[in-house]
Amino acid sequence: MTRLDMINQCFCGESCEEILSSLEHLATQVQEKWVIDAITSMKSANPLGLKIFLRTIREGRSKNIEQCLETEYIAISNLIAGKISHNYYEGARAMLIDKDKKPQWVPSKLEDVTEEMVAKCFSRSFTEDDDWLPLQLPTKTSGTHVGASKL
């Protein structure tokens, strides 16, 4: 089996839990460093962030670049606002401020991240309560860019 076959086999799972389980199963069959590294990375990453990332990637397959950028902007705006969790700031604390490299994710396990939590990250109305402005991508007119984003 080629590395690409192994990647496709593991990452075709419907959920982060299925992907992790596939990687763990593969680790019992092959001695590949990248498999162990992937498992380690997934187990140490922000569980909510993993699920947001997977949804973004999967949905992005059928979107154009403008739609992808808007989706990512909405998700990161909701995460930075801290309404779903404070994991964005916890990651910064653990890696950049205290440098203990031991973030305390809430929720701490993939199985504790609900679909409702993930959906809230992608909710456009969720950001409208704050001072967040909608993403305004520049438009190309006569070779110049106008309408730059207000951030």
From TrEMBL:
It is an enzyme of class 3 (hydrolase). Signal peptide: none annotated. The keyword Isomerase applies. Residues 3-122 form the Enoyl-CoA hydratase/isomerase domain. GO terms for molecular function: 3-hydroxyisobutyryl-CoA hydrolase activity; isomerase activity. Keywords: Hydrolase, Isomerase. Its EC number is 3.1.2.4. Pathway: Amino-acid degradation; L-valine degradation. It catalyses: 3-hydroxy-2-methylpropanoyl-CoA + H2O = 3-hydroxy-2-methylpropanoate + CoA + H(+). InterPro entries: ClpP/crotonase-like_dom_sf, ECH_dom, HIBYL-CoA-H. Pfam families: ECH_2. GO terms for biological process: L-valine catabolic process. Belongs to the enoyl-CoA hydratase/isomerase family. Hydrolyzes 3-hydroxyisobutyryl-CoA (HIBYL-CoA), a saline catabolite. Has high activity toward isobutyryl-CoA. Could be an isobutyryl-CoA dehydrogenase that functions in valine catabolism. This is 3-hydroxyisobutyryl-CoA hydrolase. It comes from Helianthus annuus (Common sunflower).
